[in-house]
Structure formats: C-alpha cells, structure tokens
C-alpha cells in the first residue's frame, strides 16, 4: 500500500486528532474499522481458515499504527514519481480494501521504464490466498513469469534441467540401470 485512497481516507481533522492522541496513547485500540475479512475472502472454506488463524488480529487498529500508516502513505504518495526500478503491481479491479486507482497512479507516475501492472477482475483483495485455487495459480504464474523474464531464469531453468538430466544419465550408467527416455 503506497497511498490511502481519497474515498477511504479520513477527513482532514481526523488525522490531526489521531496524531495528537497517539503521542499519549499509541497502543490504545480505538480506531473504528469494519471487519474486512468477509470483504476480501471469496472462497467460503478459506473464510473459515482465515477466521481461525490464531495470528489474525481481531481488535481495532491501535492509534500509533494508524498514525504511522497515514504518515508513511503520505510520504510515499509524494514520491511516486521517484520510483525508478523494475516493479510489478498486482491489484483487483473491485478491491474493497485498497483502491486500484492508486496502483494505476503509481504505474503512471513512476520513472521506471520496466513497470508492469496487472489488474484482475473479480478476485477481491487477497490475491494469493483467499481466492479460488485457479485464481491463485493465475496470479502465481504472472509473478513467476515476471521474475523469470527479468532474471534470465527461464534459460537458467532449462540449463539446470539439462544438467540434472545429464547427471541422472551418468548415475544410471554408473549403476548399470537401463532406462528409456
């Protein structure tokens, strides 16, 4: 998350009040929010798994955390145009938690020549866990393809497979095992 969408960002006075209160009560869990679990979990079985996760925070966000999120996203938002490295952004078109327009803005403003944005339809917020297995596979393949294309990974992977084949052949010959490929 590099910017809080204008449609969910608190009105101008709220961040000032939160910042003031956080100086004295940073761990106070009083910031009102909705339980977003059911807004970004598509598969009922995975909703159950996510709801039973013992590491899942169930309380209200703490003042200090919210103030830092506001501060950091403001800082990052002012520097979107400074991004000058290869990146891929993955987002859903109807994300109820973060705004896909913010991802589009990053892609538009960044100086990087190697930038990829993938906006998926109907996958909700959590792209790699709380989706159908088919959708998770689509996202994983997109990430893997992006990484392999930039790392020479496909050639390296083919070379490694060939080396493994040669090694297996040598080992099989050494053991006098006959095998047809």
Automatic annotation (TrEMBL):
One Pfam family it belongs to: Hydrolase_4
Keyword field contains Flavoprotein: no
Transmembrane segment boundaries: 20-38
Top-level taxonomic group: Eukaryota
Keywords: Membrane, Transmembrane, Transmembrane helix
InterPro entries linked to this entry: AB_hydrolase_fold, Hydrolase_4, MAG_DAG_Lipase
Gene3D superfamilies: alpha/beta hydrolase
Parts forming coiled coils: none
Limits of the Serine aminopeptidase S33 domain: 1-129
PANTHER family named in the record: PHOSPHOLIPASE-RELATED
Name the UniProt record assigns to this protein: Serine aminopeptidase S33 domain-containing protein
Organism: Vigna mungo
């Amino acid at each position: 998350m590099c910017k809080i969408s204008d449609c969910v960002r608190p009105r101008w006075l709220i961040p000032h009040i939160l910042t003031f209160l956080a100086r004295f009560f940073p761990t106070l869990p009083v910031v009102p929010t909705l339980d977003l679990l059911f807004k970004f979990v598509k598969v009922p079985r995975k909703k159950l798994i996510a709801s039973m996760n013992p590491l899942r925070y169930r309380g209200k966000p703490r003042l200090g955390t919210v103030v830092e999120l506001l501060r950091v996203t403001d800082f990052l938002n002012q520097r979107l145009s400074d991004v000058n490295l290869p990146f891929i952004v993955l987002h859903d078109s109807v994300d109820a938690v973060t705004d896909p327009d913010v991802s589009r803005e990053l892609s538009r403003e960044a100086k990087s020549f190697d930038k990829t944005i993938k906006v998926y339809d109907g996958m909700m917020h959590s792209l790699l866990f709380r989706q159908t297995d088919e959708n998770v596979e689509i996202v994983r393949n997109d990430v893997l393809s992006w990484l392999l294309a930039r790392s020479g990974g496909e050639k390296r992977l083919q070379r490694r497979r060939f080396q493994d084949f040669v090694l297996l052949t040598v080992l099989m010959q050494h053991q006098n095992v006959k095998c047809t490929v």
